[in-house]
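Exercise (ungraded).
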Amino acid sequence: MTEGPTITTIAQRAGVSIASVSRVLNGLPTREDTVRRVMRAADELGYVPNSVARSLRNRRTDQIAFAMADIGNPVYVAMVREIQPLLKAAGYRLLIHSTDGEAEDELGVLRGLRERYVDGLIISPLRGVTEEHVEAIVAARAPVVVIGALPDDMPEGALVDNVRTDSRAGVRLALDHLHTIGRRRIGFLNGPLDTVPGAARAAAYREALEALGLPYDEDLVEVGDFYRDSGARAARALLSRVPGVDALMCANDLIALGALDVLREQGRDVPGDVAVVGMDDTDLASVTWPTLTSVSLGSAERGRAAAGLLLDRLQNGPREPRVSVVRPSLTVRGSTTLPPASPGGAR
Amino acid sequence: MTEGPTITTIAQRAGVSIASVSRVLNGLPTREDTVRRVMRAADELGYVPNSVARSLRNRRTDQIAFAMADIGNPVYVAMVREIQPLLKAAGYRLLIHSTDGEAEDELGVLRGLRERYVDGLIISPLRGVTEEHVEAIVAARAPVVVIGALPDDMPEGALVDNVRTDSRAGVRLALDHLHTIGRRRIGFLNGPLDTVPGAARAAAYREALEALGLPYDEDLVEVGDFYRDSGARAARALLSRVPGVDALMCANDLIALGALDVLREQGRDVPGDVAVVGMDDTDLASVTWPTLTSVSLGSAERGRAAAGLLLDRLQNGPREPRVSVVRPSLTVRGSTTLPPASPGGAR
DNA sequence: CATCCGGCCGTAAACGTTTACAGATCGTTG
DNA sequence: CAACGATCTGTAAACGTTTACGGCCGGATG
């Protein structure tokens, strides 16, 4: 009993061949009597099939990986929360890769697909899909779902689907809202321009201003990182350069937190003096004071869509690549409404 | 090329046996000439070893699972964040199981160990380790680290280590602090008593009061769930029953959020009228206003310790079970100090 | 020149399954 | 009673590795 029982052990004890054991355990038609004997032996031995051997033979692992920049980021947590139960229900286990947003790590995961330790992959590359990403996806020969932008010139036959959000539309929602409540000098605190979201949001900000008939003024724009302290620095810089700013559009909720810190520190009323809007609509938005108006980019929906596309491919075989676009929405809270509403509901 | 190359393909192309190929790829001593031929063939074919076949042969998967109640809970996120890089550095992949705190799911994961799809498991059972858990751990014959309480009568030879925190000491830290700043009517908002943390914190609250020479008054205690809205309900109930309460000890940060909501709604000053302390010291604590004083139970440290113990066992083989205890600490923020400090640093 | 030794290498078995194929067993039918 | 067909079962191969073992070849030694 030092090594667990195998079908061979069962076969001996039940006095049948290993083929019969396998058939019984897999529910293939077998004589009543044989079934009983095998089941009995299996029970007595406490047999559990070895999943590795099964995987080798069946050429499938029943495992799926999810690769993202940082599991500490609430956006990815929201995705995992949706992905996990869907996969579980379909009989798949979930592996997690935190890549720190390093392209090298992302490529490592993609190339790793060739080791066949998973049946499929959901990946959210932080800085976009490069030539090398594409190569690795094609070489993988395992289905991949990319969350984020995907080049439109993907090679034929790449087993890849795509889930994206429309962050342009998201920024527009926010600026429309700020315009509606009477704000005209709307600052913009962005993240790095060499990230996909950063670049998209920068362009969207310009477009949205134009659509509203407001002038684009580069004094109103600060570029930093997607973190709270960076948001605080950016807010401080912008406020001292343009004291008359009456709204701050922030490229994510963490930046918005930093902005709120600075506004409070400087005694400016939110939203009375300055309205603030975040993006991603994370759990944090309902915790701050005032609570934070934020553009939801549908993290949960994106997670769900990605899992759905991957499972579909795994279950129904090859088909044309699909793209699923998640529409953003605006959740209005205290940081843009007077008087501040009472805080949001439960997490 | 429809199916990837295997060592057999390489062997043919290089004109050697599969044994030689394997030896070269594993860096075993081989004649210079053979090495070159094999390497060349492997390169040209773009060979990648099949990890499943390797696992079957080597009887190890290089995978480790982490099972916890809910990946949405910041405490577990903090653990995963520490565990993942440690495992990765040691060459292991990480699987995630969200059990919803259902004992059935936890047992499913433990029993699943017998399928040998992972080399080890870190598990944090929400409602404690039952008789059945113990059985499954023993039967698993794979190393397990339990984060949380573990019965002291574990059977010999169970491959299990233990990481725990001293939540009694944590509660004491908090109450000492509240006492020091002059609070004498300290309410307690707890989670369910049939969870391990809930029960421990209830007992600790009584003890700590006693140590401080304060009377235990059951009117000052509310029991709910570990969520924000439940915390709000509990706070409302307690405040109306005992209007003169001057501090609220909350069994976790989410409950504290709910309490802050209610205090603000009722126009009571924090910490002037009522001081508030949370537990877990999650990221949320530095986001609220005022920022939340909170007892850190060292989630990150516990994650790190768990990964360390598991890796040690995997790398150095059997040894006596170990217990690692993480000391709690108190992070004082605005919800207990006058005047409220400026908000905390970056997340 | 025969012997021995050391270094490489190939054959084959093993890890634990699933499944194609052929053989065995049974009942049914002409 | 022989022949047949339908069921069931066992043998063996396959999935892609790693590795024990023995054979072969070379050079060095007596």
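Further reading is listed at the end of the chapter. For now, observe: The mean pLDDT of chain B is 94. The first helix of chain B runs from residue 7 to 14.
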